[in-house]
Write a structure and sequence with these properties.
Number of strands: 32
Structural class: mainly beta
Number of helices: 8
Helix content: under 10%
Strand order of the largest sheet: 23-22-19-20-21-25-24
Distance between the termini: 37 Å
């Protein structure tokens, strides 16, 4: 599947023809960057275009929702308690109410904020947990743990704005803390001066009781935490960053992995991160302590990648509610998708495309018309789970639904085996805003006709994962395209072929007036890899840190197959997550129960 000569012109609006540039000498890196864009602004950390979207800890375009939340139209919304797993440790809330699990409590608190976490186990009237801050000149933070009779001062070691924000939210200040500082004075409480409480939080808890708290002997040079909660809004100065919640923080506090804003908006649009934090590929910064801790924080999982975490010891359980939250996540339904049945060997110096082997692209399907010659595949498609297949809208017509046949497990269009199945269609759903002139919203769903039991048991077929965020992959990332499209010289292949391509950034400049927001483009700078006529509707898949395949695009259109400067154009699937889930149900495609 090599480049098609220039004179194909606009006949090649529906296309694919994959191969690989011989100069690809760093293929082992799935996330290779091709000529990374230079910062468009002077600030070396922040991305202005991203900031305009006002992302916070409730934006599932950027972060994972909590187990007691679900992602709907880009926002983390409260689940109802009955939607939580039933397994887990029972807990008690501050209003004395008993809950079956921590998830049930947090789901209830999501709608009734006064019911915060108090402790694990059944409720008893004697147990209290309280937090207070002194008045006037004395703003020392005092905490009375459940197993103590008196309030105790808090050590300043390991205390950050993560903990300060949680303490203030515990006290009812929704915007969190204004600032904190260390106070070495012990005149306030000589009785407790030899000991203090060491508290560490993740930063998004609503109660200090959810954090890790331990009594420790106070070091002679160690101070106590003095805290000021955020109350009054003010205009931010030139040297400050305005959080989405309108707090003002120093520019030195952005992109350091610490939730200084309290709503995480200072960590979600970072071109790079400061030394004490980890940069996720979706441009968010997380604390180094969250890396290799058995919980995925980056959307594409690079913070828990086996290569990165090999040989690193995992942290021990610290008696906070982190472990309970992690355990709950393992109980949530997770879609098994994006895994191949065959190792995708990184072949170097690919020219003209490579023939796919059994199990390499188990989500690839072929679409034929009943009256066409038996060996003709005129469009591709992608299996996404259940009885559903995605393809391009321009591949299908509503009045021909009875003629379409979907072939799964197919490699050779003229040679079928026991792994090959064929299905007729139950229904066809073309996007209601599909524009046949501009190819906007060039996407359609095919529902396969189920067996008598209502199921579609597709043998030897695995669904591709559906991405929910447009930030999961970006320009320069290497992805794979596959199909039965035209080869060099307009020959129609009988075998499935594939090639590596890279996502492009400046597609609107390459196709002025014709490239729209919900499109993506991919190829190589020399045009040696491309999609071409006959590949429409087929998959462009990108891979996360664990080599799980996400359907980033479906082949839509292009200009002059294989011509340098004219990469293939694809329908960007992440932009249609809600549209797809509306028709096929969210549980079918939500890999992380988002």
């Amino acid at each position: 599947m090599q480049a098609v000569p220039v004179f194909l012109v606009f006949l090649s609006l529906f296309w694919f023809c994959g191969s690989e540039n011989a100069a690809s000498n760093t293929e082992e890196n799935q996330f290779q960057q091709v000529e990374p864009a230079q910062p468009a602004e002077q600030d070396t950390y922040l991305i202005g275009e991203c900031l305009s979207n006002k992302y916070t800890h409730k934006s599932c375009e950027k972060v994972f929702c909590h187990p007691w939340e679900r992602c709907v139209e880009g926002k983390c919304l409260c689940k109802l308690p009955y939607q939580c797993p039933k397994n887990g440790t029972s807990v008690c809330s501050t209003n004395g109410r008993y809950f079956r699990t921590y998830c049930h409590l947090k789901s209830y608190e999501c709608q009734r904020p006064e019911a915060k976490f108090l402790h694990k186990g059944k409720c008893t009237s004697e147990e209290t947990f309280s937090v207070s801050v002194g008045n006037g000149d004395s703003s020392l933070l005092r905490v009375k743990p459940l197993n103590q009779k008196n309030h105790i001062l808090v050590c300043d070691s390991e205390w950050t704005m993560n903990e300060a924000n949680v303490a203030c939210k515990h006290l009812g200040f929704e915007s969190g803390a204004e600032y904190y500082q260390a106070d070495s004075s012990i005149t306030e409480s000589a009785l407790n001066s030899l000991h203090c409480l060491k508290i560490t939080c993740r930063g998004l808890e609503t109660s200090l009781a959810e954090c890790h708290i331990e009594m420790k002997s106070r070091d002679s040079h160690e101070g106590f935490v003095s805290l000021q909660c955020h109350e009054n809004l003010r205009a931010c100065s030139d040297g400050e960053f305005q959080c989405v919640n309108n707090k003002c923080i120093s520019l030195n506090q952005i992109c350091d992995g610490i939730n200084d804003c309290g709503d995480l908006s200072d960590e979600l649009c970072c071109r790079e991160c400061r030394d004490n934090s980890f940069h996720c590929r979706s441009d968010i910064c997380i604390p180094n302590k969250n890396v290799c801790n058995n919980e995925i924080d980056c959307l594409t999982g690079e913070d828990e990648a086996r290569v990165l975490c090999a040989g690193k010891e995992k942290g021990a359980e610290n008696h906070s509610m982190d472990e309970e939250r992690k355990m709950t996540k393992t109980l949530l339904p997770q879609v098994h998708c994006g895994f191949t049945n065959h190792t995708l060997i990184r072949r170097k110096r690919i020219i003209g495309g490579k023939t796919a082997r059994k199990g390499e692209f188990p989500w690839q399907v072929a679409i034929k018309e009943n009256h066409h010659e038996g060996a003709t595949v005129y469009c591709g498609g992608v299996y996404i789970g259940g009885c559903w297949v995605l393809t391009a809208a321009h591949c299908v017509r509503a009045n021909r639904v009875h003629l379409y046949r979907v072939w799964t497990g197919l490699l050779h269009t003229a040679e079928h085996d026991k792994e090959t199945d064929t299905f007729t269609l139950n229904q066809l759903i073309i996007h209601e805003k599909y524009n046949a002139t501009t190819y906007e919203n060039d996407i359609a769903l095919l529902e396969l006709k189920a067996f008598a039991n209502g199921e579609c048991p597709l043998k030897h077929t695995t669904p591709a994962c559906i991405p929910w965020s447009e930030y999961m992959f970006k320009a320069g990332d290497r992805c794979k395209v596959s199909g039965w499209g035209l080869e060099e010289g307009y020959n129609k292949p009988h075998v499935l072929k594939w090639g590596n391509v890279h996502l492009f950034q400046n597609c609107s400049e390459l196709y002025p007036g014709r490239f729209f927001k919900r499109m993506a483009c991919a190829g190589t700078h020399d045009g040696s890899i491309d999609s071409c006529k006959g590949d429409s509707g087929g998959p462009l898949v990108c891979f996360d840190a664990e080599n799980v395949a996400y359907l980033w695009g479906i082949v839509s259109w292009g200009e002059n197959c294989g011509e340098p400067g004219h990469p293939g154009v694809y329908t960007k699937i992440a932009s249609y997550y809600d549209w797809i889930s509306h028709h096929v149900t969210r549980s079918l495609i939500s890999r992380y129960n988002i």
